[in-house]
Amino acid sequence: MLMRAARYDRNGPAAEVLEVTEVERPEPGPGEVRVRLAVSGVNPTDWKIRSGATSGPPTQWQIPGQDGAGTVDAIGPGVDPGRAGQRVWVWSAAAGRRWGTAAQWTVVPQHQAVALPDGVSFDLGAMLGVPAMTAHRCLYADDLVEGADVLVAGGAGAVGHFAIELARHAGARVAATVSSGEKGDLARRAGADEVVDYRRSDAAEQLRAFAPVFDRIVEVAFGANLDLDLAVSGPQTVISVYATAGADPVLPLRRCMTANVAVRFVLLYGVPPAALGAAATAITGALAAGALTPLPVHRYSLEQIVAAHEAVEAGAVGKVLVDLSL
To answer: What does the alpha-carbon distance between residue 92 and residue 103 come to, in Å, rounded to a whole number?
Structure first.
């Protein structure tokens, strides 16, 4: 049996290395499930790996895509037969494996195909994965207590969106920083109690009026935002860094020491398995409670995979999805 899939066999720009072709449909091995995908999510990590920015060339060919949603249609040995026909969201499908989600089918270890609660759309399921699990790790790698004050940098991005919603679901107070009115509206719709344009000269004063010292900062641009972060940090603050831009930042050690701030670095591919499992469980619980909502969608067909990757690389506001039904 063959299937349609996007793939590449070398690093480079999307238009030069990605192709959509027919490949053999994968079969699940022991402890694995096969998922017929309805929707695939595209993340910055997908284009960074494909381009070679964060990874070397694949040993053979690679189907991109970590995240997706669909229906389990085959199970491997050792998997509960009752999982056949289950609607699921998929995370880290291409992490150390060939069968990413930019295809009609993928095969993953059974714990990486998580049951979707009733009423949750495949679109929302495909948006989770990397963004929601990164957000959960940033919030919960260190204790997050009810009533904590959380600052989410880049509140309109996918990680920022789910960080706001997961923090609010936990009973935290949340401020978010953004760079435009459109992004501010998105952060407010996600539930941010306060939204601040980080480009304003009084951004620190606005944030301190909301919370003199934040307990957690979920940081998307560590180098650019470090000065603002330190202005609202103290001994209880943990800055959870999951991304940065440009040159590596130079830490102002005296200011960091004076604040007694802690910095935690988060890269999903190195998070301990137990923590990943806890994140998937917590995210599914938040879904069931109605606490997580979709971002605005930019929808592409599989044949438009190049344009989908280019849209994410260009910084599309919202979520880029590849609809396998188109």
So the answer is: 14
**Residue 313, domain member (yes or no):** yes
* Phi, psi at 275, each rounded to 5°: -70, -35
Same domain assignment for residues 89 and 149: no
- Do residue 236 and residue 141 come from a single domain? yes
Instruction: Indicate whether 107 and 218 sit together in one domain.
Output: no
Backbone phi, then psi, for 65, in 5-degree steps?
110, 115
Is the pLDDT reported for residue 220 higher than 90? yes
Please give the backbone phi and psi of residue 64, each rounded to the nearest 5 degrees, phi first. -80, 170
Percentages of the chain per state (helix, strand, coil), in multiples of 5: 35, 25, 40
In a domain, 101, yes or no: yes
- Indicate whether 314 pLDDT > 80: yes
Domain count, the chain: 2
CATH number at residue 228: 3.40.50.720
Confidence of residue 245 (pLDDT cuts 50, 70, 90): confident
82: Cβ–Cβ under 8 A, 6 or more apart, which residues? none
In a domain, 78, yes or no: yes
Token pair in block for residue 94: 């291409």
At 321, list the tokens.
């999805």
- Furthest-apart CA atoms within the chain: distance in Å: 63
| Structural domain range at position 44 | 2-128+292-323
139-167, pLDDT tens digit by residue?
999 989 899 999 999 999 999 999 999 99
Q: Are residues 173 and 246 in the same domain?
A: yes
pLDDT, tens digit, 9 for 90 and up, residues 170-198: 999 999 999 999 999 999 999 999 999 99
Chain Cα centroid distance, residue 248 = 22
Question: pLDDT tens digits for 69-97?
Answer: 999 999 999 999 999 999 999 999 999 99
pLDDT for the residue numbered 233: 98
